[in-house]
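INFO  loader      accepted 1 record
INFO  loader      residues=149
INFO  predictor   begin
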Amino acid sequence: FLGTNNNNNNNNNATNEASISDEALLQGLNQCSILVRGNFCLKQMATWPPPLQRIRTFVLLLLQTRGFVSRPRVEAALEEGGGDHHNKWNGILTQVARRSPLGWELRVEDDVAFVAQHPETSRVHLQYWEEQAETFSTWLERYDREEES
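INFO  predictor   done
INFO  writer      dumping tokens
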């Protein structure tokens, strides 16, 4: 881990590596990242326009809450919302997800051990996702309605 002193050069002097506690690292990650299925992911992409950031957050919300994303259902939800986002959101999806039999799933495996080891951090991030579910309730309804069709 980052706080580990791993000096392989047989030099007894202090290493050039910075030392940081696990708590300090978690505090830093909590400021700029969000927990998705036990893995940290940047909250926002600073150079992206707000509509793409909203779509990215929606995709991450689906990955967090559903475990996978159905591309046709997202496309239908976004189209119904007014706007041609097809080409734009494809890049978002491929950055955070990979194809699976169910659709698209998080690019990395769920880290249930992290969630178990850090329940307070996990709880804070789950509250964030609950707030996002309220923010995106209309898109979630459209997404779920597509499942019924």
